[in-house]
Amino acid sequence: MNHAASAPAPHVLSPHDPARNGPEPHLDVPLLPAPHGHSLRVPSPHPPRRGVFISFEGGDGAGKSTQMRMLRDHLVSERSVAEDLVLTTREPGGTPLGESIRELLLHGEHVEPRAEALLYAADRAHHIATVVRPHLARGGLVLGDRYLDSSVAYQGAGRELEPEEIAGLSLWAVDGLLPHRTILLDVPTTALDERRDTVARDRLEGAGRDFHEAVREEFLELARADPERYAVIDGTRPREEVHAQVLAAVSEVLSLFDPTFEPVPPPRHRDEQ
Ligand code: TYD
Q1: What is the C-alpha separation between 108 and 103, in angstroms, rounded?
Q2: Are 231 and 220 in contact (CB under 8 A)?
Q3: How far apart (Å, rounded) are the C-alpha atoms in residues 223 and 241?
Q4: Residue 165 within a domain
């Protein structure tokens, strides 16, 4: 692993087509040259053509699940979005196959880094093809607890593999699909340590402080490289305040879903009031 905070920003995850809801681009980015003139090609990253896809990222214990649930409840109760139009899902998991892969990855024995990266990518490929894409195709809203940025951050930054390779692998697995918006709940590693249950840690949660610090840095770097897709929110704030920030961060993309949605202004921090 030779990744450092000063490494060039990963470009592979920036959407090729800035017209967020436009037609899917067909430009391919070569990943690996092959001996006989063929190459494994990675499709350009792009948001879905229909529906809205929002992902939540952050370290273990950053509050993603809570914030996803609060956003879903807000949409259903206060914005009258039909319950069956809002899909909340997670990776690894989200399908029966994915739940088995999750069990192997998080509670099984040691998995070699390349095998681990492939298992996360396999889970994702199946989840996106069988659950997420069909929901988006009917114009639905998908709230995802982790997506390919987690692979880049965890497998790329914390292990011996390169973030660019991991990004290419995952983009291939999902045929280039990127969320419209990614909420990064940023929490310092020391604060995450305190939040996590010290008894019931899974394999990755039990990894060392340096590993989690590298994961955090990689997430922040991904966010810096694509400020249009990412919203970085201070996850140490009280949860209602974080929720208000999440609402402001998704307000623009929600108008893709329903043009009658009123924009929500960004809230001010309590200590600024
Ligand atoms: P998560 O479901 O957020 O854990 P929990 O519900 O226990 O808080 O994520 C499970 C773990 O999987 C987490 O430690 C991060 C890891 N992970 C990866 O390493 N790579 C990936 O691509 C994904 C999606 C998750």
Answers
A1: 6
A2: no
A3: 21
A4: yes
Residues 32-47: tens digit of each pLDDT: 555 555 666 888 899 9
Report the candidate in 211, 239, 224, 136 with the shortest Cα–Cα distance to residue 184.
Answer: 224
Whether cis (ω within 30° of 0) applies to the bond prior to 92 is yes
The reply to whether ligand 1 has any atom less than 6 angstroms from the CB of 150 is yes
The CATH number for 95's domain is: 3.40.50.300
- What gap in Å lies between CA 3 and CA 88, rounded to an integer? 33
Q: Which atom of ligand 1 is nearest to the CA of 205?
A: 14
Task: Give the Cα separation of 86 and 162 in Å (integer).
Answer: 34
Residue 132 included in any domain? yes
C-beta neighbour count of 266 within 10 angstroms: 12
Q: How many domains does the chain have?
A: 1
Segments of 134-261 assigned E as strands:
141-145, 181-186, 230-234
Structure tokens at 73: 């409840």
Distance CA(116)–CA(192), nearest Å, equals 23
Segments forming the whole domain that contains residue 77:
40-254
The answer, yes or no, to whether any atom of ligand 1 lies below 6 A from the CB of 204, is: yes
Token pair belonging to 228: 């249009």
Is 4 within a domain?
no
CA angle 148, 153, 159 (to 5 degrees): 120
What's the pLDDT band for 167 if we cut at 50, 70, 90? very high
Note the pLDDT tens digit of each residue in 177-203: 999 999 999 999 988 877 766 555 665
Q: Is residue 58 part of a domain?
A: yes
Query: From ligand 1's centre to the CA of 254, what distance in Å?
Result: 26
Question: To which residue do tokens 């192997």 refer?
Answer: 104
